[in-house]
Every structure is written in structure tokens, then in C-alpha cells.
Specification:
This protein has 455 residues and is α/β, with parallel strands linked by helices. The chain is 32% helix and 22% strand. It folds into 3 domains: 78 residues; 90 residues, Beta-Lactamase; 250 residues, P-loop containing nucleotide triphosphate hydrolases (Rossmann fold).
């Protein structure tokens, strides 16, 4: 047992030279070819740290843990006489700290701002997404047990569990990153984990324009639509940028209105002051206590909202959302997974039916046509860039069909040097929603709708 009040000895800058020739010295532990040796060293040091550290420290005192870790680590290296440089020593120490206190091998990926998603396909295969492209990494876990230890570290503080009786779980890291976990027997190649990182950067409309996601005329039109209390649904596939775009649209909401956000995992970063944030809750280990998005939508209507922002509709809450939009709670925003603007409305039809209400299809479509004003559809293109490819107006009903009209679209012209070439353009059509915009005293110049090639 160690006395933690003792001042830790100063770590050696470099272990004394070995009498053996330099060619016979231990190779760098950080080199790719020496990964196995580095892992063996880390495991040996970590085993001693865990055995000697646990009875001596208060687990809630992070500073005390770090002090004890550094002291024991330094003593262990001195006893082992490992020939490590200062850089190698620091990297090995960081690796062991990550294994004991953090999320192990993926800790550095969580700190890498260029990584937007982390995908662990068992202990021996880890992918990341950078710039919209998937890349395999050299990160490995020792075995399934090592990976499960990290998984337990994620879910335990949330009061969740993952085992054979409950092999799937959704969780959230302290920084807001979303985590999905699935383990054997459902996952055949070992425990699998997907982490969608919570962006530390808050994007504004100017950032999206600079990145080519849309143009200034489109931004002016969408800003006017939000201020004029139009109901907008943002659609797109997985990782197409829906939540980021919803966050940008939400930035146009007036600061003197009461805004209620409803999400599965809190990701929206509204800058307004009068915001009430609601988050759904999964069932506990006994299968009780679940609070769904639908329940929160229903409850929000009793909270005197001016605007309701739903992170994503994916079930029966779509019916309650439509009811709210059609009964005075206009100006609402939401997202939905789909392959296109019309598919978005088809999906919402299906989700309304999931509410269990025996409604005729025509009545559902009339509700949808009356509720939504615009569909903004996003796509992640083959070069990894994300763009608003359609801004479509919902114009009403003709017979049993909902009439839709594109206002803006993205025209692809090909691929050059791995980059998709194209441009955004208006279609020369004045949308019907302009009447609503003008009633609110807002002005959008007709030139924003003019096709690019006619300007």
C-alpha cells in the first residue's frame, strides 16, 4: 500500500543508456511494427497499477487518482528498466490512463475534432468517419473482454446494462455524443459500438454557405420562412446533416418566444434564452419508467409553447405533431429519415398510422398538406460533402394526392479530382408561402428564385 501524501518522485527524463549496442536496444514502443511489444508493456504496467492502486485511493477524487497513477507508473518503469524516451514514456502513460480512467484505445479518437463518427466492429476492427469518408484505423482492443469493460464503463453511470438478456442499448457520453451498442449473441463478430460524436463547433448559416451546403438566396428565403412561422421538416438519410441544419434553422427563431425542444438525445444548441429542453427516457433495467417522444410532444402542448422543435419524428408522435401544427402551434421544426421530399410525406403517413388511430388515408394526407409548408432535403454526396439538394413546398391537395413543388435544387455536373461538381439554383417559381411571409412584413426579393443560368 502506498502513502498518497508523499510527494511523487520526479519522472526520469530518459532511462540511462544500456550497455548493449544501440542496434540491440529496444525499438520504439510507438512504432507501428512494435505494437505488440507496446501492448505487452502497457498490459504489464497496467496490471500492477490496478492491483496496487485500487485500495489506496478515493475513486471520486480524480486528482488523487492521477497523482497515484503517475507515481506507480514511474516506479514500475524504473523497476522494469524500460529504455523509453520522454515522448514514448508520455504516450505509454496516456495509453494506460485511457485504459484505466477513460475509454481505452478510442479515447484519442474522441479528442480528435476531425473524427465525426467512431465504429467499433469487434475488438480487432475500428473505423472512423472523417470528412464524410470512412477510414480504417490501427486501433485494436486486446480481446472481447477488454472491449466489454469499456462498454460497461459507458453504460454504468447511466443506470443501464448490456448483457445476453439485454444485448442492445442506446446511451450518451457526458459530452452529448450518441452511442449505440450491440453485443453477442446478436452481433456475431463480437461487441459492436457506434459513437456519433457531439460537435463542439456550433455551425451558423454563414458556415454552411461557406461549405457549399446551400447558397445565400436559399438562406434568405429559409430565414424568412422561419420568422413567418412556417412549419418545416428537414429530411435526409443517416449522417446527412439533418440535426446540424435543424440547429441552424432554429437559430432564426425569435428570442422573445417560448421554445420547447424535444429530443431522444439532447443535441440541439439553441442560443435563445427562453428555451425548455426535454429529452425522452428509455426503460430501466426492470422495463419500467420509459418516457417516449410522443408523451413529451403531448405534454409540451400544455406548456404554452410558441415554437416546438422535435429532434426527429420516427413513430406515433407524428400524429400529435400534425395536430399541434393544425391547432395554432405553427412555426414548428422537425426532422425525418427519408430518401426524398415526397418520400418524407409518405413516411409521415406511415408514422401516423403507427399511432394506432383508425384514420382514413385521405384524412391523414389532408392533415399533412395543411400542416407542413416546406421540406428541406439533405444528402451526403459521394465525396462526403453534405448539401441541401431540394427545398420543396407542400402546396395542398389535388384529389387524393399531395401537391409538391421544388423551389430550389442542387444540380450535379459530375466529379472532378474526387469532388462533386454542381450548383444550387432556383427554379423560377414564386412559392405560395410568400403570401404568409409578406403578411408578417418580411421581404424576399424575387431574384432569389431566378434560375442561376438566367441571372
Amino acid at each position: 500500500m502506498f502513502n498518497l501524501s508523499r510527494t511523487p518522485p520526479t519522472p526520469p527524463q530518459r532511462v540511462a543508456s544500456s550497455p548493449v549496442r544501440s542496434a540491440e536496444r529496444a525499438p520504439s514502443v510507438t512504432a507501428s511494427a512494435d505494437r505488440e511489444r507496446a501492448n505487452a508493456i502497457a498490459e504489464r504496467v497496467q496490471r500492477r497499477l490496478l492491483s496496487e492502486l485500487s485500495p489506496t485511493v478515493n475513486a471520486d477524487n480524480v486528482e488523487e487518482i492521477h497523482r497515484a497513477l503517475e507515481r506507480i507508473f514511474t516506479e514500475t518503469l524504473a523497476e522494469e528498466a524500460l529504455p523509453l524516451s520522454r515522448t514514448e514514456r508520455n504516450e505509454l502513460y496516456d495509453q494506460i490512463v485511457a485504459n484505466i480512467l477513460g475509454l481505452g484505445p478510442i479515447e484519442r479518437l474522441l479528442r480528435d475534432d476531425t473524427v465525426t463518427e467512431i465504429m467499433v466492429n469487434g475488438p480487432n476492427l475500428v473505423y472512423v468517419e472523417r470528412g464524410g469518408k470512412l477510414q480504417e484505423t490501427d486501433i485494436r482492443f486486446r480481446d472481447n473482454e477488454d472491449l466489454m469493460r469499456i462498454i460497461d464503463r459507458i453504460v454504468a453511470p447511466l443506470g443501464r446494462r448490456v448483457d445476453e438478456s439485454s444485448p442492445m442499448v442506446d446511451a450518451r457520453l457526458p459530452d452529448g455524443s450518441r452511442v449505440n451498442i450491440i453485443i453477442p449473441p446478436l452481433a456475431l463478430n463480437g461487441p459492436c459500438m457506434s459513437i456519433r460524436k457531439f460537435s463542439r463547433t456550433t455551425y451558423g448559416m454563414e458556415d454552411l454557405i461557406r461549405l457549399g451546403a446551400l447558397t445565400q438566396p436559399m438562406a434568405e428565403f429559409l430565414r424568412a420562412c422561419v420568422l413567418a412561422r412556417c412549419n418545416i421538416v428537414v429530411s435526409g438519410g443517416t449522417s446527412s446533416g439533418k440535426t446540424t441544419f435543424l440547429n441552424v434553422l432554429s437559430s432564426f427563431l425569435p428570442g422573445d418566444e417560448r421554445i420547447i425542444t424535444i429530443e431522444d438525445a439532447a443535441e440541439l444548441q439553441l442560443r435563445q434564452k427562453h428555451v425548455v429542453r426535454l429529452e425522452s427516457r428509455p426503460p430501466n433495467v426492470e422495463g419500467k419508467g420509459q418516457v417516449t417522444i410522443r408523451q413529451l410532444v403531448i405534454n409540451s402542448l400544455r406548456m404554452r409553447p410558441d415554437r416546438i422543435v422535435v429532434g426527429e419524428v420516427r413513430g406515433g408522435e407524428a400524429l400529435d405533431m400534425l395536430q399541434a401544427m393544425n391547432t395554432g402551434h405553427d412555426g414548428s421544426l422537425t426532422t425525418a429519415h427519408s430518401n426524398g421530399p415526397r418520400d418524407t410525406l409518405h413516411r409521415i403517413e406511415t408514422m401516423v398510422l403507427m399511432a394506432g388511430m383508425d384514420l382514413p388515408l385521405r384524412a391523414i394526407r389532408e392533415q399533412i398538406a395543411s400542416a407542413f409548408d416546406l421540406v428541406c432535403h439533405l444528402e451526403r454526396l459521394q465525396d462526403g460533402s453534405r448539401k441541401v439538394v431540394r427545398v420543396t413546398e407542400v402546396q395542398g391537395m389535388e384529389g387524393d394526392v399531395i401537391v409538391m413543388q421544388d423551389i430550389f435544387k442542387y444540380v450535379e455536373e459530375g466529379v472532378k479530382d474526387g469532388k462533386v461538381q454542381g450548383y444550387h439554383t432556383g427554379l423560377g417559381i414564386r412559392p405560395k408561402v410568400m403570401e404568409k411571409i409578406e403578411r408578417h412584413g418580411l421581404f424576399v426579393p424575387p431574384s432569389v428564385f431566378v434560375p442561376v443560368k438566367n441571372r
